[in-house]
Every structure is written in C-alpha cells, then in structure tokens.
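Good morning,

Attaching, inline, the backbone tokens for the sequence recovery test we're adding to the shared suite. The designed sequence is right after.
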C-alpha cells in the first residue's frame, strides 16, 4: 500500500510539471539509473550487443543510455497524458505515415484489426493520435500490481482509448472487440506471459510472444505492424505498415510461427535503424527474463 501511495503521489506530481521541466528531470533520472543500477545497465548492454554486434563499445554505451532515457520519458509521457492537449500534440508534435494506406482500409473490411507494436519509441503516445482521428482502440498492457495497473491504465486511457492488463477477461474482450470490427493494440517484442515460441531474433534464440498472431489466425483479423520513434526534443514519428501476409493452411502452429517470423523481421529492421529507441530494460535473450516490474522497482529504489 505504501509503495502504491508513493507511485500515486509521484505520478500526480510529475503530471503537473511543465513538459520541458518534466523531460529534463526524467532525463537526469535516466542518467542516474544508468550509473547506479548495474543489473539494468548490463541487461541493456546485452540487448544492444545483439542488435548492433559490430558496433564499437562506445556506440553500444551511447545506445544503452538512450534506451534508459526513452524508458524515463515514457513514464513522463504517461504522467503528462491527462493534461496533454491532444489536438496540439497531433498538429505540432506528431507525424504519421501509412494510416490511410493500411489502417483505414483494414478497418473498413469489418473483421477487426490487430495493431502489433513494440516497446520502440513510445507506441502508447503515438496511439493517442488514433483517438484524435476517431479510431477507438482496446490495448492490452503488462500485468503488474493490481492497483498499479489500474493507476497506469487510467492515465493511459485519459484521451479516450481503453486499456487493460493481460487477464482471462481482457483476452475475451480482445476477441469481442475484433468480432465487432474494432481495433486491438498488442505488443510483440517481449515474452511477458501467454503463448511463446523459441525463435531466432537477430540470429540468436529468444522466447518471443506468439499470442497476437494466434489470435489473428483464429479470428481472421489482419495484423498491422505499427512503430514509433522519438524525433527531436518532443516529437514522435509513427508508421502504420503493410499488413502481415498471414498463412491459414490449417496447421495453426506452423502458421503462427510463420506469421511471428514475419513480424520479427519487421521489428529487426526498425531496431537496426535506431537501437536506442528500444525502451526495454530486461534481457531478451534469456530463457527466464526478469520482469519489467522488478527492474523498474530496482531503478526507483536506487535513485531515491
């Protein structure tokens, strides 16, 4: 209860700060975390060495510091969301590609749409543009402490979307949303919970989530990869990509693996472009990765 109250006070306080000051504060926090939390630093370095294997050590360190900064700015963005002017964000801070080419036609087909993203840039902030355009989304989020999940999801949903942790009830809601022709947002770059498969990711085996593709195969919904990246001081650039070419041969497992493989290839291409945008502090190439909640708690404890 005490930890939840601390988070509640922190979020409510941060959310009232001017964005420029908030970003500066969280960037400083990220710098401190990089130097004070060796476990997280090692995790990020390990990930970066897989993504950029031929890069010199100085470049790996630079990308790792950017990763932690992006993680810190993610929490700044969540705290600021309730007070963010959505129209101003859409018109002044945001650039989007592929919405009319890929997302709107897929919605018009009426089979529902799965947007499959990654912890790259800030997908949740980029997704707020859909609310401005009148496209409601139901998004599954990582399940942490129930009160913390509720607090985070309330902030995330402040502009009109719906968010919920991965539970049996919310998985059912995903299916219901797709059946009604709605849009569901899922993540595909980290094995959190649910179906998974050991697959090659940057040439090495990692456990990758297969649930999003399995849902698509079973429901007939298209999967549209969506990515975002930070640009400049406050900007976000987003991409809606061409739908995955999913196979439906009757061999569900083989079709799911093939679809996940195609998504991984799209993700690898984005990560190669700008590794520091990947806001992940867990070791991905680890058969038993530590949880995001545990790592985030360690960071918070070290810098308090």
């Amino acid at each position: 209860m005490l930890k939840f109250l601390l988070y509640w006070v922190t979020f409510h306080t941060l959310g009232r700060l001017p964005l420029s000051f908030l970003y500066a504060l969280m960037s400083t926090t990220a710098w401190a975390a990089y130097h004070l939390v060796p476990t997280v630093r090692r995790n990020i370095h390990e990930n970066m060495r897989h993504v950029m294997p031929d890069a010199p050590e100085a470049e790996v360190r630079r990308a790792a510091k950017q990763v932690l900064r992006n993680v810190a700015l993610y929490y700044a963005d969540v705290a600021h969301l309730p007070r963010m002017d959505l129209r101003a964000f859409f018109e002044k801070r945001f650039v989007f590609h592929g919405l009319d080419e890929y997302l709107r036609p897929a919605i018009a087909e009426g089979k529902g749409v799965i947007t499959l993203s990654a912890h790259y840039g800030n997908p949740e902030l980029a997704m707020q543009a859909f609310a401005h355009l009148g496209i409601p989304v139901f998004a599954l989020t990582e399940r942490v402490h129930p009160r913390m999940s509720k607090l985070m999801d309330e902030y995330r949903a402040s502009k009109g979307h719906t968010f919920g942790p991965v539970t049996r009830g919310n998985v059912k809601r995903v299916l219901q949303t797709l059946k009604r022709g709605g849009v569901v947002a899922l993540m595909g770059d980290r094995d959190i919970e649910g179906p998974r498969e050991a697959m090659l990711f940057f040439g090495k085996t990692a456990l990758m989530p297969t649930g999003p593709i399995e849902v698509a195969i079973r429901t007939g919904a298209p999967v549209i990869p969506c990515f975002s990246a930070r640009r400049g001081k406050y900007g976000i650039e987003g991409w809606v990509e061409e739908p995955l070419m999913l196979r439906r041969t009757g061999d569900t497992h083989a079709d799911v693996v093939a679809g996940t493989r195609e998504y991984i290839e799209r993700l690898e291409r984005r990560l190669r472009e700008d590794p520091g945008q990947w806001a992940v502090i867990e070791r991905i190439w680890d058969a038993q990765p530590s949880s995001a909640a545990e790592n985030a708690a360690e960071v918070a404890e070290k810098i308090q």
